[in-house]
Design brief:
Blueprint lengths: L1 H6 L2 H10 L3 H8 L4 H5 L17 E4 L5 H10 L7 E8 L3 H13 L4 E6 L3 E2 L12 E5 L2 E3 L12 E5 L2 E2 L4 H7 L6 E6 L6 E5 L5 E6 L10 E5 L5 E6 L9 E5 L9 H17 L4 E5 L1 H4 L20 E6 L1 H10 L5 E6 L17 H5 L3 E7 L2 H14 L5 E6 L6 H9 L9 E7 L3
Parallel strand pairs: 1-2, 2-3, 3-5, 4-6, 5-7, 6-8, 7-9, 9-11, 10-12, 11-13, 14-15, 15-16, 16-17, 17-18, 18-19, 19-20
Length: about 425
C-alpha cells in the first residue's frame, strides 16, 4: 500500500531520494556550486542549515560581497580545504588578500586558483605551503626574489601575467617545486630580461608571450627541462620585428618508440624559428644525432630564414645544406659536424647554388670536422661558389693527415672570391 502511494506521488519520491542521500554525496553536489549559492541552501531545512559549511571547496566570484566572504570563512567547519578559487578579477585589498592566503594555508589547501584585483608581493606562507598540489595565479601578485620556497607537493603551476621582482624570481620559485610536473607561463608586456625555466621534473611546459607591436624589448627564454614530454611555445611578437638571437640545445631521450615523431617535432620547431625572423641562431643537435637512430634527413627545410645573418650549427652536413638553401642573407656559418660514429651522411650539392653564397656569405668556420673526404667535398663546393667569402677556418678532429697536408689540399681548391683567406687549419686529437 505504501509503495503504491509513493509511486503515485512524484514529489514524495524526489523528497525521499534527497533525504536518503548521505552527507558526503550532498557535499559533493554542493562542491559544484559557487560557495555563496551553496550557503543559501541553509534555509531548506534543519539538516541543511550548516551542511554547506562542510563543503570541500570554496568558490567565490566577482559579484560576491567581501563581508560575506569573511563570514563564510568564519563559519566554514572543515579542517582542510580541497579548493579555494577566486575568479573573474575578484576585488580585494592587500590585507584581505594576505588574510585569505593565510586562511587557505592554515586549512591545508590543496588547490588554489586566484584571479583578484591589484598586484602585491606573494605572501611567504604560500611559498611554503606543504599541502599545495595545484597553484594558479592570474594578474594578482608579484613573485619575490628573496625568501625560502618549499612546495614539496606542488605538481601544477600556472602563472598568468603575474609580475616578478627580478630575473631571479622565477628560477627561485621553480627550485622549490621539487615535484612539479606541469608549468604554464603566460606573460604580457611586463617582461624580464631572461625567463629561465629549469626543473628536473617538469613533463609539460606551455609558454605564451603576448606582446604589443609597439613594445621594445630584449628578452631571452632559457629552458632546461630534461624530463619534458610536451612543449608548447606561442609568441605574439610582430613578425616584422626580427628576433635578435635564438640559442637552442635539443636533447633526445632513449625511448626509440617515438623517434619518428620526435624528428618531426624538431622540424616543426625549426620552422617556428623561421617564422620569428631571427638574426642569429645557435642550434645544437649533438645529443640527438649521436643517438643510433638520430637522423636529420627528416628535416625538409620548408621555411625560409630571410633575416638570418649568423648560424652556429652542431649537426651533420645534411642540415647545413638545408639552411644554406633557405637563408639568403647568411653572412657567417660556423659548423660543428655531429653524427653517429658508424654513419656519416654524404654531402650532396644543392641543385642550384644558394643565394647566400652569391652575395652574402663572408665567414665560414668548420669545427671538429669528422669525415675528411666528405667535408672536403663541402669545402670545395663552398670555395667554388662563395663569391664574397673573406675568411675560412678548418679544424679537423679525426684525420691521419698533417695540418700542412690539409692546408695544401684546401689551397688547391678553386675559389670564386679573390679576397678569401684560409686563416687557420688545425688537426686536433679529441
Amino acid at each position: 500500500m505504501t509503495s503504491s502511494t509513493s509511486s503515485s506521488n512524484p514529489e514524495a519520491v524526489n523528497s525521499d531520494r534527497i533525504s536518503g542521500m548521505q552527507d558526503d554525496v550532498l557535499l559533493h553536489i554542493l562542491s559544484f556550486l559557487p560557495t555563496i549559492m551553496s550557503a543559501k541552501t541553509s534555509i531548506l531545512s534543519r539538516r541543511w542549515r550548516f551542511l554547506w559549511a562542510y563543503a570541500p571547496d570554496l568558490i567565490f566570484e566577482m559579484d560576491d560581497d567581501v563581508d560575506i566572504v569573511y563570514r563564510v570563512m568564519l563559519l566554514h567547519r572543515r579542517k582542510s580545504i580541497n579548493t579555494l578559487r577566486m575568479t573573474r578579477c575578484f576585488p580585494c585589498t592587500d590585507l584581505q588578500f594576505d588574510t585569505w592566503i593565510a586562511y587557505a594555508v592554515m586549512r591545508k589547501v590543496r588547490n588554489l586558483d586566484l584571479w583578484v584585483e591589484g598586484t602585491r608581493i606573494l605572501p611567504q606562507c604560500l611559498l611554503n605551503c606543504e599541502t599545495l598540489v595545484d597553484l594558479r595565479l592570474s594578474y594578482c601578485c608579484v613573485i619575490p626574489d628573496a625568501g625560502t620556497v618549499y612546495l614539496p607537493c606542488l605538481k601544477n603551476l600556472h602563472l598568468i601575467e603575474v609580475e616578478y621582482e627580478s630575473d631571479e624570481s622565477l628560477p627561485r620559485l621553480l627550485s622549490g617545486c621539487t615535484k612539479l610536473e606541469e608549468f604554464v607561463l603566460k606573460s604580457d608586456e611586463k617582461l624580464l630580461s631572461c625567463y629561465k625555466i629549469s626543473s628536473p621534473t617538469i613533463e609539460r611546459l606551455t609558454v605564451h608571450f603576448y606582446l604589443s607591436d609597439a613594445t621594445s624589448y630584449e628578452c631571452r627564454l632559457v629552458i632546461n627541462t630534461p624530463a619534458l614530454g610536451y612543449l608548447q611555445i606561442c609568441d605574439g611578437v610582430d613578425n616584422s620585428t626580427p628576433l635578435i638571437e635564438a640559442e637552442i640545445y635539443l636533447e633526445k631521450g632513449s625511448n626509440k618508440k617515438y623517434d619518428f615523431l620526435y624528428s618531426r617535432s624538431i622540424q616543426k620547431f625549426i620552422d617556428w624559428l623561421g617564422i620569428l625572423n631571427p638574426k642569429s641562431i645557435r642550434l645544437n643537435l649533438s645529443s640527438y644525432l649521436t643517438q643510433q637512430t638520430g637522423e636529420s634527413k627528416f628535416f625538409a627545410g620548408t621555411v625560409s630564414f630571410p633575416t638570418l645573418t649568423k648560424l652556429e650549427l652542431d649537426a651533420d652536413c645534411f642540415l647545413v645544406s638545408q639552411f644554406l638553401k633557405n637563408a639568403d642573407n647568411l653572412e657567417i656559418l660556423i659548423f660543428n659536424e655531429v653524427s653517429e660514429e658508424k654513419k656519416s651522411y654524404v654531402w650532396v650539392e644543392p641543385l642550384q647554388v644558394p643565394k647566400c653564397l652569391l652575395s652574402h656569405l663572408k665567414v665560414i668556420k668548420f669545427v671538429n670536422t669528422v669525415d675528411k673526404m666528405n667535408n672536403f667535398e663541402m669545402v670545395k663546393f663552398l670555395l667554388k661558389n662563395a663569391r664574397v667569402l673573406e675568411k675560412m677556418d678548418i679544424i679537423y678532429s679525426k684525420t691521419s693527415d698533417t695540418e700542412e697536408k690539409v692546408r695544401e689540399i684546401v689551397l688547391l681548391c678553386k675559389r670564386a672570391s679573390t679576397k678569401c683567406r684560409l686563416t687557420r687549419v688545425e688537426v686536433v686529437t679529441l
